[in-house]
Specification:
Order of helices and strands of chain A: HHHHHHHHHHHH
Strand order of the largest sheet of chain B: 1-2
Largest sheet of chain B: 2 strands, antiparallel
Largest interface: A-B, 59 and 67 residues
Oligomer: heterodimer
Strand content of chain A: under 5%
Structural class of chain A: mainly alpha
Number of strands of chain B: 4
Distance between the termini of chain B: 26 Å
Distance between the termini of chain A: 67 Å
Radius of gyration of chain B: 20 Å
Strand content of chain B: under 5%
Radius of gyration of chain A: 27 Å
Structural class of chain B: mainly alpha
Number of strands of chain A: 0
Chain lengths: 217, 216
Amino acid sequence: MTRHEQLLSDFIDAWTAGRRPRVADYLDRADPAERDELALHLDTYLTVAPIPDYDEATRAEIRALPAVARIVTATTGPTGPLPATVLRLREEQGRSREEVGALVARSAGVDDPDGRVPELLAELEEGRLDPGRISRRLLGALADVLDATRDALEAAADAARGPLRPAAAGGVMFRAEGDTDTDDLASGLAALGRAAMAPAPEPMDEIERLFSGGRDA
Amino acid sequence: MSRSNTMLLRAFFTHRDAGDDAGADQAWVALVVANHDRIAEFVANFRTAAGPLTPDEQEDAVQDAFLRIWQRLGQNLVGTSEGQFVVAMRTAARYACLDLLERKIRRRAREGASLDEVHGAPDGSVIDDVDPDVLGALLDRRLTEEARRDAARDVYGALDQLTNDGYREVLVHTLAGTPTDELLQTLGITRDNLYQRRKRGLAELRRILTEGGSTS
């Protein structure tokens, strides 16, 4: 058997057994003349390879990787993947929040003399803003500044609102049956009355609308 | 034998459709853990003319690839086969790498760096002094074509097209995760013969896949 065949089969056995082999290590061990061909064979194998037979400790080891933790937070957290995506793209550019905030303000055409855009950008990256309320105009400006596409950022923002979930059922009408607690009803009506009489909140300014005014703001 | 992606996907969709978010999240995390190394290896072996991506770039591309898969789960991966799912993962990893490369080129162009610096094109050629917008359009078109081709491809179906029964027999067992020593006993062939059939079978499988021979 050739060295190439031996390395290929060793990799396959290590992968199947869940020993987490690295392609690069096997290529390093190959004869230079055979390296490219081995790389192609390993690539083909990885395309069709079964899920390795990891034991519990190995699964826990992979689950604890920082990259995996970030993926899980981005996909199972309440704000979806947008915060992690924006943070990753900004870091990829090696730019500070202040720099990106200033460029985003300029691209979106808003004045930001007090530097609020970088602060709101920090809130966005930290998952403290509702991605469902972020305007399309901001997503476009972020895409422009971060070399992404607006569609990709909008998809990431929409994901927070649950594209993976089945469509919500229609509204449910509740009806009192049997004995009704009239005290509860009265307190509910009083709360509604207080809410109706409360003064309307201050209208949002331009920057607030950009970050929290809804897609069409 | 470990779980298959089909089982994990079925668990994900079953929990999701029942409104059990915690169960769906758990199945998704199991999918991520089961496939992290595969995606990481695809990304690590993505080559440009300037060499592999840096470790930080690789980590970003792996994260991006999983986000793409997650977003596709709700769109067109319902009822997907094992073979289609692994192709989808491979495509997601490739798109993540290509997008990262494109952003890098745009950034350098914007910063005024010389594009004499060598960048690798998706087809392995060298991109030298290319307008980033032109590159973007080329990539978009290429990826759209690739996505269309991948959507109908089931890599396991390609096994049926192997012309040599001996290669197919070895690969079917190999892809089922049968350990080498057990396979030697089952097939009653020498180790040399087994290793040779594996290598040649994978080479033929690659040819079938790259020539678009597939499979539904």
